[in-house]
Amino acid sequence: MIPTKGTSPAAFHPVSAPDYVPAALLRELQLSRLESVVARAWERVPLYRTRMERHNLTPDDVRSLDDIAKLPFTVKADLRDTYPFGLFASPMEEIVRLHASSGTTGKPIVVAYTQPDVDVWTSVMVRSFAVCGLHQGDVIQNAYGYGLFTGGLGAHYGAEGLGATVIPISGGNTDRQIMVMRDFGVTAICCTPSYFLHMIDRAAELAIDLRALPLRVGVFGAEPWTGAMRERIENLTAIQAFDIYGLSEIIGPGVAVECPCQDGLHIFEDHFYPEIVDPASGAVLGAGEEGELVLTTLSKQAMPMIRYRTRDITAILPGACPCGRSLRRMKRISRRSDDMLIIRGVNVFPSQVEAALLEVEGTLPHYQIILTRSHGLDQMEVQVEVTSESFSDKIGALEQLNDTIADALEHVLGIRVEVTLVEPHTIQRSNGKARRVIDRRLQP
Ligand code: DLL
Questions:
Q1: Is 144 in the pocket of ligand 1 (CB under 6 A)?
Q2: For the chain: N or C, fewer Cβ within 10 A?
Q3: Best substitution site from 149, 247, 332 to test ligand 1's pocket, by max atoms within 8 Å of Cβ?
């Protein structure tokens, strides 16, 4: 059955039942789980206990869901400072899996799972796929990277748990991806949105019409992408593109996913308790207000996370979703608070650049921002790939396109930046998360 906007065939999938638990029951469940997780963290992880003691708190101080706001935050540096196993709440004999995320600087962070943790992870991934309208009989090509990254194995267990057929192809070797997609009757693809765009380009070069294949669903995440990027993907293929969100520290993929209404991502809040806080003051914000997503794991054993500051910027959407799920929704993540570039005093986010480029005809959504410093002044160059047709245009037409892009960027960013048009395929592709920014400002 092809999912259409506003209706959800997944609504009838038995694994989706917890998505519809009445809100009052859900709150009760969350509170009893919160009490257990706080007690576990207190008893077993010295960092949590010391921090709570410093605030004169014991687990008994958490008596309602609002009391969560009394608890201290946990941040990424806590994982680095206790590297590798300092936040584990289970002995190694009970831990069945380790993953790690490298990040951009320094040591990786390590995350651990007991068997019940892997089961929870599988269950939220099964529910995620069901929300996207997938079921037994679907053939899921899993092009998220397998290995220490959580994307590959998370989606793999979810697809198998659903009873679908999973192709564990991992990232890379784009020609083989397209061959498999065509020859194996693939109905769903999982990868980063930027990698899927690359697959679309390559399929066009190989004269393979993706619309002629049974492919109907894409489950894309692990990096920010815009509504305009979704439109581009959906217009160039016959798929419905869903946004899936997650992070290693909390579990991996499967923290939240879009339903066919495509208006925000439902958070699996029976396992992950969301709050939105002001990134500067840490104050809890209300529904509809944009701020930093803070998550508390409600059922994880090996590595409970209490009020983890994700750095991802979003808002909890007020109101009920027409799909009928009681799980609250968050806006798609457009940016991270630490992604913000400050160029000559102006705040710039890569997502603004992407949104502006997608408005200009003749450009491809492959771009890179290069930052340099000359005579103490920050310079920002945006390299943009243009279609081969535009590239073969006369010089005058290219100059005009360059000006149009520079104007569009100035309009959203508030500063004039240098634009360089480059041929298709000039910008290096990634099989996983795209590298949007190259910062050479601190290089000697
Ligand atoms: O990226 C887990 C994942 C795998 C999610 C596959 C979805 C699909 P990490 O490598 O730890 O885990 O990176 C987590 O990636 O804090 C966000 O900044 C970003 N991110 C993940 N999903 C999305 C999304 C995985 N749908 C970090 N939209 C997070 C925007 C996302 N950003």
A1: yes
A2: C
A3: 247
Listed in sequence order, the residues at least 6 apart from 92 whose beta carbon sits closer than 8 Å to its beta carbon are 85
Average pLDDT over residues 170-183: 96
Q: Is 350 near ligand 1, meaning CB less than 6 Å away?
A: no
**d(Cα 195, Cα 142) in Å, to the nearest integer?**
12
Q: What is the pLDDT of residue 159?
A: 98
According to DSSP, the β-strands at 377-386 and 363-374 are: antiparallel
pLDDT for position 175? 97
- pLDDT at residue 378 above 70? yes
* Per-residue CA distances from 333 to 292, 315, 359, 366, 393 (Å): 10, 9, 20, 19, 37
- Beta-strand relationship, 308-314 and 335-336: antiparallel
Instruction: Please tell me the predicted confidence (pLDDT) of residue 33.
Output: 98
The one-letter amino acid at 257: V
Q: What is the pLDDT of residue 43?
A: 98
Q: What is the per-residue pLDDT across 190-230, written as a single tens digit (0 to 9) for each? A: 999 999 998 999 999 999 999 999 999 999 999 989 898 89
Asked whether 432 and 151 are in contact (CB, 8 A), the reply is: yes
The fraction of the chain above a pLDDT of 70, given in percent, is: 96
Cβ-contact 301, 90 below 8 angstroms = yes
**Is the CB of residue 202 less than 8 Å from the CB of residue 174?**
yes
CB of 218 sitting under 6 A from ligand 1: no
Ligand 1 in reach of 248 Cβ (< 6 A): yes
Distance of CA 24 from the midpoint of ligand 1 (Å) = 30
pLDDT in tens, 348-358: 888 889 888 88
pTM of structure: 0.91
